[in-house]
Amino acid sequence: MPIVIQLVNPEPVQVPAMAQPTQAPRPAPRPLGASKPRPEAARPASSSEPKVEQAIAIARTEPAKPRPSSPTKPQPVAAATSSDEVERRSVASARPAPAKPVVTEVFSREPAFLTPPRSPVYPAQARRRNQQGQVLVEVRLDAQGRLLEARLLRSSGVESLDRSALDAVAGWRFRPETQDGQPVPSRVHIPIEFALSASR
């Protein structure tokens, strides 16, 4: 028996189109001179962020406290370099300073003069009144015989006579007193008599 082949028009098979890669939309062109925007970093939201900002604000408002300066420690004194130096210092400190010779004032029995002393001036008023008397003057001299002090030890009772005696002594030049061949300070008592018949 013959085979009959019947051609049947089949339904068109739809071939699925190949998936094309999707392209991201291009950003709009940026105008010239414009700065490129910086992407903001995403900060995780946390509950402690307000506290940090508050701490920063407090730190900015409060001035920094100065740190207390540490007290300076005294530097130790350098010790002696050697025992010889220590011994020399101890000997020098233990050695007493040379004592200066103490010169005492001596008392002279009578004055010695470099030049003859001038007689005191007899006051004219005392002469007219016939006033007389004796004046005792103490004279203090240094080791060179210079007059240090002349004071009245005993008055004559007449002021003009006492004053004339002191004025005369102030102009006298004395010889220094010597002791063991060395000049020493001295003092001497000088009586001065005012009498109308006396020369001095």
Topology record:
Layout: H1 49-61, H2 83-94, E1 106-108, H3 124-128, E2 133-141, E3 147-154, H4 159-170, E4 177-179, E5 182-184, E6 186-194
Parallel strand pairs: 1-6
Antiparallel strand pairs: 2-3, 2-6, 4-5
Give a short overview.
The chain has helices at residues 49-61, 83-94, 124-128, 159-170, and strands at 106-108, 133-141, 147-154, 177-179, 182-184, 186-194. The protein is of the alpha+beta class and 200 residues long.
Could you list some keywords that capture this structure?
two-stranded antiparallel ribbon, alpha+beta, single chain, 200 residues, TolA/TonB C-terminal domain, 4-stranded mixed sheet, 6 strands
Q: Can you walk me through this structure?
A:
The protein has a domain at about 110-195: 2-Layer Sandwich (TolA/TonB C-terminal domain). Helix content is about 20%, strand content about 20%. The protein has four helices and six strands, in the order H-H-E-H-E-E-H-E-E-E. The strands form two sheets. The chain has a four-stranded mixed β-sheet with strand order 1-6-2-3, covered by helices on one side. Strands 4-5 form a two-stranded antiparallel sheet. Strand 4 (about 175-180) and strand 5 (about 180-185) form a beta hairpin.
